[in-house]
Design a protein that fits this description.
The complex is a heterodimer of chains A (about 250) and B (about 70). Chain A is mostly helical. Chain A contains twelve helices and no strands. Chain B has one domain. The longest helix of chain B has 24 residues. The chains are: A mainly alpha (about 250), B mainly alpha (about 70).
């Protein structure tokens, strides 16, 4: 237990020293700030673009647009940044060989996976909450309105999608070796999930739905109950990925 | 343009963060001469001219472990 705690602390320190925590916070801070701002400035940006023979009329932006910018930024760029930052979480130490020393000192292999997942989860939660709070404040300041139906639930769905992504990252980094193979495999899995999301019947069971229905939720075109099954499936899949990584890593040759 | 200027107090923190990230990445890449791929010139261009994503790419896939 002591070893687990010490290893978790070491992981946190490492993420601070190699600037990864800083990057994550900075990027999500920027997303939280720029989303309402972009929504507010969109009509002005367009009015300065003079395109021959084309008049663009844009309705006055509302706070819904601020949230849709926010969800768009996080689901696209945010997830890519998460993948880039955490894809090397295990492989980096494996290629460097530093993990062998820790394991030789008696730390269990399960503890390594759990500690790393816990650290990734904590960093994701902190940076995502930061982005959400800043977005919340700015939207209120710029649009004078912040209440959207199901807003917290919608934010929770995207958070849970992040939790799932991190579990997939853990799994792919135990399954593969080398620096980029894990990243590629994660991208491939996400690509498959995005592709099968085309079929309406599967949509309900696909974790991707958690990241694609956020606007529908706050505009009330989708109800909370419709996504409950997706939430349970995502939780199950995340646990499954974590379980696989525990099993595979126990048998992995280092 | 006047309307856009109105928002400069909001844009300023965003610009400051981007500049800080670019500077940290630049200092780091000037101190380390070898990278996982690409040369110093390549990374200087990426860090300085690709907004926000440039420094992230450097720290995640460019920087070699010390």
């Amino acid at each position: 237990m002591n070893g687990l705690l010490a290893f978790t602390k070491k992981e946190f320190r490492e993420h601070i020293y190699n600037y990864k925590a800083l990057i994550l916070l900075a990027v999500f801070f920027v997303f939280g700030m720029i989303s309402p701002l972009l929504a507010k400035m969109m009509p002005e940006i367009f009015s300065h673009m003079s395109i021959e023979g084309l008049t663009i009329t844009i309705t006055e932006p509302t706070y819904i647009e601020a949230y849709s910018q926010f969800f768009k930024n996080i689901t696209q760029m945010g997830i890519i940044v998460i993948l880039l930052i955490f894809s090397g979480i295990l492989s980096r130490e494996l290629t460097r060989g530093t993990l062998i020393i820790v394991l030789a000192k008696g730390l269990s292999r399960h503890a390594v996976i759990l500690a790393k997942y816990f650290v990734a989860l904590t960093l994701w939660t902190i940076s995502y909450s930061l982005a959400a709070i800043i977005n919340f404040g700015y939207t209120f300041y710029l649009f004078g309105q912040f209440y959207a139906p199901n807003l917290l639930f919608s934010l929770f769905c995207l958070w849970l999608f992040g939790v799932f992504i991190l579990a997939v990252v853990m799994m792919t980094s135990t399954l593969t070796s080398g620096n980029y193979a894990g990243l590629l495999l994660t991208a491939a899995i996400l690509g498959i999930l995005l592709t099968i999301n085309i079929f309406p019947t599967i949509k309900k069971f696909n974790p991707v739905s958690l990241a694609s229905n956020n606007i529908a939720l706050i505009t009330n075109t989708k109800s909370v109950s419709e996504l409950l099954i997706t939430i349970w499936i995502t939780l199950a899949l995340s646990s499954f990925c974590l379980l696989i990584s525990l099993i595979v890593f126990r048998r992995k040759k280092l | 343009m006047k309307e856009i200027m109105e928002y400069w107090p909001f844009l300023l923190p965003v610009i400051v963060i981007q500049v800080i990230l670019a500077v940290i990445a630049l200092v780091d890449l000037l101190r380390h001469k070898t990278y996982r791929f690409g040369n110093q010139f390549f990374w200087i261009i990426v860090v300085l001219f690709v907004q926000l994503i440039g420094p992230i790419l450097y720290f995640t896939i460019g920087k070699r472990d010390s």
